[in-house]
């Protein structure tokens, strides 16, 4: 059987479809069941519920950005094994996106209204990193996942102690992000030069402050 090679237009349509699904479908189908499982949903007061929802909205935006970064990097990857690794990681991030979306719904909240903007910006950054070179692209994955793992750890410290469902999701995501970083490191990631990690941290800080509310 002959497999048709995708044209530039075909690839553009694929990327556009991915963007629409990620930015506008808060809870896509997931492969893995939510780590929240059958854990009870605690009776949170209004303030605690708003805070938990704000943190889970940040995490949802983080997964939107992760999808965009991986898809942008995969779109320009030079080597097929790297492209496949990036797409496999993106598939796992889809589970995270679904879990966060489901939890936001349970908390009576919603995803960020700025998701299309977050996606577009992250895709451009991912493609830009990929165009520099595959080792830099992998280095970008490592640094991104390190920073995400760190902020998920902070969320575990500030989420309401009784909110077992949100905490289970965040804990599982933290484990997965650490594994993504290790995989990228093992694949030959290059250390990102100064001041890129600092700029990434600053941009993530802006995103978190905005996404907590909007």
Describe the structure.
The protein has helices spanning 8-24, 46-76, 80-106, 115-132, 134-158, 164-186, 196-211. With 214 residues, the protein is mainly alpha-helical. Helix 3 runs antiparallel to helix 6 and helix 5 runs antiparallel to helix 6. The relative contact order is 0.17.
The helix/strand order is HHHHHHH
Major sheet, described briefly? none
pLDDT averaged over residues = 93
Rg, rounded, reads 17 Å
Share of residues in helices: over 70%
Structural class, please? mainly alpha
Categorize the overall geometry. globular
Write a brief caption for the model:
With 214 residues, the protein is mainly α. It has helices spanning 8-24, 46-76, 80-106, 115-132, 134-158, 164-186, 196-211.
Outline the fold blueprint.
Blueprint: H1 8-24, H2 46-76, H3 80-106, H4 115-132, H5 134-158, H6 164-186, H7 196-211
What descriptive keywords fit this protein?
7 helices, mainly alpha, globular, single chain, 214 residues, 73% helix
